[in-house]
Amino acid sequence: MRFEINIDYPLEKMEASRKRMESWLKFKYIDRVPVAFCVVPRYFTPIFKIPYKEIFKDVETQYYWLLQFAKYNMENIPSDAFCSPAISILPYFDNVVDADAMGAQIVWPENETLHAIPYIKTIEQMEAFEIPPVNSGLWGRTIEWWLKMKDFAAQTRVTFAGHEGHIEMGLLGISGIGPHMIAIDLVGTDFYWWILEYPQACHRFLNKITQALIKFDKHCRTIDKRQRTDVSLAEDSSQIMSAQQFVEFTVPYDRMLYESLPDIPNTRRGMHMCGKSQHLHKALVEELKIDAFNVFGYLVPPAVAAENMGGKVALFGNINPMLIHKGSKEQIKQACWEAIDVMGPYGGFMLGDGANVCPGTPLENLAAFVETAEEYGLGGGKLPHD
C-alpha cells in the first residue's frame, strides 16, 4: 500500500455517535446531546509545525496531511462527528474555490487562510460577467485533485483500533458558499449599496452566479455519480442585511440551489451563517424552509435561537470560539450548560462552536463540551430521552 494509517478509535464509540447523530436529526436524544466542531486544517498545521501554505503544495501533499489531521482529530478531540470506520477526504481550498473560478485573484499566504480579492469595480464590469467554464480555476483543480485522491484512496490501508476501515471520498460538487457570499467576494462591500441603487443589475449578477454553480455541480455529477440528498449553504455576508433585503437578494438564489441540486425532492436543506442572524430566522424557516442551522454564529443568544427555531430546525452551535480558545474550562462548561438548557429541550440540538475552532485552542477546552453534555444528559438535566 502507498499509504497506511492506524487510528486508535474504537468501533463501539463510532456506533454510539452514529445513534446520537441520527437522533439529532429526528429531534430526539439517546443519552445526551451530540457534540461536534467545525475544526479545519488551519487548526492542525501549527500542531504539526508546518506552514499552512504547505497543504496546497500539490495533491499528494494535501492528501497525506488530510490523513494526519483526521487521525489527530479522532484521537484527541472528543466529538460525535465520526460515525463509521472511514476517513472522509475531499480537496480543500478554504472558501475561495468559487471566487477563484469566477475570476477573483486569490492570495496564498504562508500561514493565513486563503482569501479572494474583489475585482469587479463598476456596474458595467458586473453586467459583463459571464458564466465561467466548468474547469475554470480552482473548479478545475478541485476535480483534478479529487480524481487523484480517489486513486490514492484505493492505495491506502486504514485501520481503526486494529479493525479494517476505508477512505470515503467526499461528494464532488459545489463548495457550499452561497451566491450572495460569492457576489461579495467578487465585488466587495460596494455590492451592499449597489443592491439599493442598481437592484436589477444585481439580480442579473446573482442569477448568473447561481446558474454557474448549478452548471458546475451538474458537471461534477457526470464524474461522481453518487446520489445527492441534501444541500448545505453558507451565507455569512447576508447577516448584515435587513430582512427585506435578504428575502429579495439572497432567498431566491439559495432556493434555486436547494431545489436544483438534490437528486431526491424535499430533502435536507442546511444553512450556515455567522454573525447576528436573528432578524433573518423567520425567512430562513418560512421562506427557505431550512432543516438545519449549522455552526451558527455565537452572536445569536441561545434563548433567541431556541425561540425562533427550536423544534423547527436542527440547531448546531454556538459557543463563542474566543471563549473556547482563551476561557477557563469552568467558563466553557457554564456556556455549554446554558446552551443545552435553553436549546436542548426542543430536541434537535447539537452542541458545538459558533463558528470555527481557533488554532491554539487547548484540547481540554474542547473536551469540556462532551463532559458538559454527559453531565447534563445523564446527571439530572431536563433532556428528553428516546
Task: Write out key terms for the chains shown.
TIM Barrel, 13% strand, three-stranded mixed β-sheet, globular, single chain, 386 residues, 12 strands
Describe this structure in words.
This protein has helices spanning 11-25, 41-44, 59-76, 97-101, 123-127, 137-154, 179-187, 190-197, 199-223, 243-249, 251-260, 281-286, 302-309, 321-326, 329-343, 363-378; strands spanning 3-7, 86-89, 105-107, 115-117, 156-160, 163-164, 166-169, 230-234, 268-272, 292-293, 314-319, 349-353. By secondary structure, the protein is of the alpha/beta class. It has a domain at 3-116 and 131-174 and 266-372: TIM Barrel. The strands form four sheets. It has a five-stranded parallel beta sheet. A hairpin with a 2-residue loop joins strand 5 and strand 6. Helix 9 (199-223) packs parallel to helix 11. 41% of the residues are buried. The mean pLDDT is 96.
CATH architecture label of the domain at 3-116 and 131-174 and 266-372: Alpha-Beta Barrel
CATH topology of the domain at 3-116 and 131-174 and 266-372: TIM Barrel
CATH class of the domain at 3-116 and 131-174 and 266-372: Alpha Beta
Described by the principal axes of the CA atoms, the overall outline is globular
Radius of gyration: 21 Å
Main sheet: strands, sense, barrel: 5 strands, parallel
The total beta strand count reads 12
Mean pLDDT figure: 96
Strands ordered across the widest β-sheet: 8-9-10-11-12
Helix content, binned percent: 40-55%
